[in-house]
Design brief:
single chain, 199 residues, five-stranded parallel beta sheet, 5 strands, 54% helix
C-alpha cells in the first residue's frame, strides 16, 4: 500500500483547539502528517516562528506520525521538498471555502500531482480562528476553552508584556505633558527670582 504523506500548512498564530482537532483527525487519515508553520514576512505575528513551532511540538507529543516543521515561500514547493502528496486544509464557513478553493486550484495548476483535502472542524470549533483568539486575549477575556493550556499561558505572558509596555508608554507621555504644562510656570518663576535678586 502506498505511503501517503500530507502537510498541514498555516500560520498558527497562535495554535488553537481547532488546529489540534484537525491534526488529530488528519493523523488518522494519513500515514504521515507534517504541521508546517509558515513564516510570512508580510505579517506582523504575535508569536515568532520558533515560538509557534515549540508550542505545536508540545501539542503533538501524543501523535507518533505527526511532526512539526517551518517553511517560507510556496506551499507546493515545500510539499515537493518534503515528498508530500497531499495538503490538509480546514474549512469553517463558506467564506473559507471560496478562498481555499482558489488556493487549491492554483496549487493544482502549479503541481498537478498535489491533492488538497478539505476537512470540516468539529462543530464546537467551527467559529474559532487565531485572529479571534488574539482579540479575546488582548481584551482580557478568557481563552482557556479556545486553546491548549500551554498556549493560553504563553498568550497571557505576551499580553502582560504588551500591557506593561503600554503602561510605560502612557506614563512617559503623562510625564512629558506634565513637564510641558509646567514649563511656562517655571519660566515665570525664574523671571520673578531674577528681579528679586536685582532689587
Amino acid at each position: 500500500m502506498k505511503h501517503i504523506k500530507a502537510i498541514y500548512p498555516g500560520s498558527f498564530d497562535p495554535p488553537t483547539n481547532g488546529h489540534l482537532d484537525l491534526i488529530e483527525r488528519g493523523s488518522k487519515i494519513f500515514d504521515e502528517l507534517v504541521v508546517a508553520v509558515l513564516g510570512n514576512p508580510e505579517k506582523d505575528p504575535l508569536f515568532s516562528v520558533a515560538e509557534r513551532r515549540k508550542m505545536l511540538e508540545a501539542m503533538i507529543e501524543g501523535f507518533d506520525n505527526v511532526t512539526v516543521d517551518t517553511f517560507d515561500g510556496l506551499t507546493v514547493e515545500y510539499a515537493l521538498r518534503v515528498g508530500a502528496s497531499a495538503v490538509l486544509r480546514g474549512i469553517r464557513a463558506i467564506s473559507d471555502y471560496e478562498y481555499e478553493l482558489q488556493m487549491a486550484l492554483m496549487n493544482r495548476k502549479l503541481q498537478p500531482g498535489l491533492e488538497t483535502v478539505f476537512m470540516m472542524p468539529a462543530e464546537k470549533y467551527s467559529y474559532l480562528s487565531s485572529r479571534l483568539v488574539r482579540e479575546v486575549a488582548q481584551l482580557g477575556g478568557s481563552i482557556d476553552c479556545l486553546v491548549p493550556s500551554l498556549v493560553a499561558q504563553r498568550l497571557r505572558e505576551k499580553m502582560e508584556i504588551a500591557h506593561r509596555f503600554e503602561q510605560d508608554d502612557t506614563d512617559g507621555r503623562g510625564r512629558a505633558e506634565a513637564a510641558k504644562r509646567a514649563a511656562p510656570e517655571r519660566a515665570r518663576q525664574r523671571k520673578t527670582n531674577s528681579r528679586t535678586k536685582k532689587s
